[in-house]
Design brief:
- The protein starts with 8 loop residues before the first helix and ends with a helix.
- By secondary structure, the protein is mostly helical.
- The protein is rod-shaped, with a radius of gyration of 75 Å.
Length: 202
């Protein structure tokens, strides 16, 4: 609000310069007081309104927070129930699938066992056949070896008999030589003894 700058001329003539100035000062002071009172009133009104609105906002926030917490709790409960239901469905589905897998595995294992039994039977037949062939071959080879051994043993026996004959002949010849030399030796010994005796008694 602007201060009062002048007073109209008729009023100034009646009041005079000092009175006019005093009137101006009074009016300015009155306006300043009104202004301060107005500001104080507006401030108090604003503070009251602010306090009221702050309280309302806090109440609204508290209420909304409670509602949000309740909604979150309800949502969590619904989610827990839904998760429990879904987990139960998944477990049932897994149990069903595992049962199917076990059945399929049992079936496949049965087929493998049948195939394995069949193959083992074939292998046993083939093995029996091969063992028979090997036995026949071994019998044949053993017969040949026995014949060869009989032949070689006969040759060895003939060789041994020949060696024995030669040894016998050589032993007989050696024995005759030994007897001859022993006879000569004893004749010499007897001659020497006779000579000693003859010399002694002479």
């Amino acid at each position: 609000m602007a201060k009062v700058a002048i007073v109209e001329k008729p009023l100034r003539e009646k009041l005079g310069e000092k009175g006019s100035q005093s009137l101006i000062n009074l009016m300015n002071v009155s306006k300043e007081e009104q202004k301060q009172e107005m500001l104080t009133f507006v401030e108090e009104k604003f503070e009251h309104r602010l306090t009221t609105e702050t309280g309302n906002v806090n109440e609204r926030i508290t209420k909304e927070t409670g509602e949000i917490k309740l909604a979150i709790s309800q949502t969590e409960q619904r989610l827990d129930n839904r998760i429990t239901i879904e987990i139960s469905k998944v477990n049932e589905r897994m149990t069903e699938e595992i049962g199917k897998v076990n059945e399929r595995m049992t079936e496949e294992i049965g087929k493998v066992n049948e195939r394995l039994t069949e193959e083992v039977g074939k292998v046993n037949e083939r093995l029996t056949e091969e063992i028979g062939k090997v036995n026949e071959r071994m019998t044949e080879e053993v017969g040949k070896v026995n014949e060869r051994m009989t032949e070689e043993v006969g040759k060895v026996n003939v060789t041994i008999a020949d060696v024995e004959k030669r040894l016998d002949s050589k032993i007989e010849h050696t024995r005759a030589d030994l007897i001859k030399w022993m006879f000569i030796f004893w004749i010499g010994q007897i001659g020497a003894i006779m000579g000693l005796l003859f010399a002694f008694f002479k």
